[in-house]
Target: Antitoxin
Amino acid sequence: MDVMTYTDARASLKDVMDRVIHDHVEVVVTRKNREAVVMISLDEYNAIQETLHLQKSPENARRLKSSISQLDAGHGTERDPEL
Model:
């Protein structure tokens, strides 16, 4: 995670946004005497929102954790999502 001041971010906003998108990094933008913000790509934001939505249900969260454990143990099967 990169950290930069508002002034520095503003001076190189295009480069900062390109780095966030292409390098998949988060950038914390600090502001004098104000709360900082985090810049992330839209894809990353959408993935976070989807994860939060899926984990709202305790049963769904349990199933997801179980599936991840099975994959980590090498018990997954590869499938083509286009089929």
Notes: The helical segments are 6-11, 13-22, 42-54, 58-72. The chain has a mean pLDDT of 93.
